[in-house]
Amino acid sequence: MKYIFITVIAISMLWEWGMHSEGMFLWIYRIGLGGVMWGSVTLIAFDFYAAVMKKNSPFMQEFYEAIKKDLFVCLIVGLSFVAFFSIIPIKYNFTNFDVAGLGISFFVYGFFALIECGKLRVAGHFLPKRIILAMFALILFSYIGSFYILGQIVLNKFSPMQSLWYQISILCSAIFIFTESNRMRFFLEKERVEVSPVLLELFASFKKTNGLYQQAALASEQWNAHVKKLKIEARTKKKNEQRKRKR
After folding, report:
1. Lowest mean pLDDT among 88-102, 165-179, 221-235
2. Which ranges of the chain does DSSP label H, i.e. alpha helix?
3. What is the mean pLDDT of residues 206-217?
């Protein structure tokens, strides 16, 4: 698992380094949302597979069960495209955007999941609006940027290899946004946060991660304890108010 992750990152970086600069916007896109997403989606795939095979925690299994159908639909449609283009006698045209097109709808799913996050309460409190707005800005940038890149692909502004790299990056960005937006909604609905034990074990095998994922796991436990405390305080306050009304 570790070596597959490293290989995916290496392929993305080497592929990206071989590309010429096409302007500031595309450079920012490649650095911020391009190759990074390849690695992120690889981790999601590992985590998802472990959940499907019942090798992840029950909490993670429950989360992935909620989004499993959408991810499987994307996989089936993608494999169908591959089978279709391998059968027809016409040579594949890289100015098509079928690979990236698989992911566009996932951006929209992310928008709606984020809207729902803004309506959910945790221990009686809403998520700070600045967090919701920051995530909206990220999704909007990715969404608009993806259509700009697709326009460049259709206009033959990229070489075939550049086109394919951008399309894979768009698909990965969309899947990442879809998964993490729904993960946030799931956490808020359950009023609980959990770091995947599968990914925790994976990152523990890297010697130079500075324990960042372990720190995230500790922070999630602290957050859960804080939420539990707030819920107890809220219940106590409600009981006291009910007693006062009876008097």
Report:
1. 88-102
2. 2-17, 24-29, 35-52, 58-87, 98-117, 129-154, 160-190, 197-204, 212-246
3. 74
